[in-house]
Give the backbone structure.
Amino acid sequence: MNNQPSSQTRTTDPSLIQLGRDLSATLLVGNLDQSLALLLDHADRTEYRFSDQTRARLRARLSETSP
């Protein structure tokens, strides 16, 4: 297990690096819906498992705000 604080964790995974860049860009302009969509897309592609039905709640939140 990595004992580094998350703010200091380094990665060489290209998909995580790109996700970080994309999230930074969308959050910089205040586009929270696009940030949420990016997180969900990344989770779907990597088969990330959310806990406590989080994925369903995030999708519901995104669908509430989408036109």
Remarks:
- The chain has one domain: 13-65.
